[in-house]
Design a protein that fits this description.
Blueprint: H1 4-16, H2 19-22, E1 27-31, E2 35-40, H3 54-75, E3 80-91, E4 99-105, H4 111-121, E5 123-133, E6 139-151
Helix pairs in contact: 1-3
């Protein structure tokens, strides 16, 4: 099983290997075992109004949650494909600063239950919540998503 630093390097490499993601210039801003934070410069994600493009916001939120599920699957010593099943996004305020997407497990979900189901049934789903904060601490965008993991044969 890789160390956390090795797992983060592998996750970053995976992100950078996807051409649309590489152009986003995202970087991993932090990981504490419960939350994954991604950062991207506003200059790469401007819309016609001079603030963060909505498509970039949801993309970063999706990538943060996908990465968090991937980190937990790998920490459990498993190999699985992780997919986003569905998501609900709310755009609450425009963002005129660099983007930071923060993802964590939803309050009504459990990593232990998710990993147990993945081990016993070969597939599992869980719910994550993610947000993009504004510089003043309010929230620009929120996302609630379900992710599915399927063990590799």
């Amino acid at each position: 099983m890789p160390s956390t630093d090795e797992a983060l390097r592998a996750l970053n490499h995976h992100y950078q290997s996807m051409p649309p993601v590489a152009t986003m210039q995202l970087s991993i801003a932090g990981y504490d075992g419960e939350r994954l934070r991604l950062h991207a410069p506003l200059a790469q994600h401007l819309n016609d109004k001079g603030n963060a493009f909505g498509g970039s916001l949801i993309s970063l939120l999706t990538l943060a949650s996908w990465g968090l599920v991937t980190m937990h699957v790998q920490a459990a010593g498993l190999e699985a494909d992780v997919y986003v099943a569905d998501s609900e996004v709310r755009y609450l305020a425009p963002l005129y600063a660099d983007i930071e997407a923060v993802s964590q497990l939803a309050e009504d979900a459990s990593w232990d239950d998710f990993i147990h189901m993945l081990r016993t049934r070969g597939r599992a789903r869980t719910t994550l919540v993610a947000h993009v904060p504004l510089p003043d601490g309010r929230i620009a965008t929120t996302c609630r998503s379900r992710y599915v993991a399927i063990l590799k044969s």
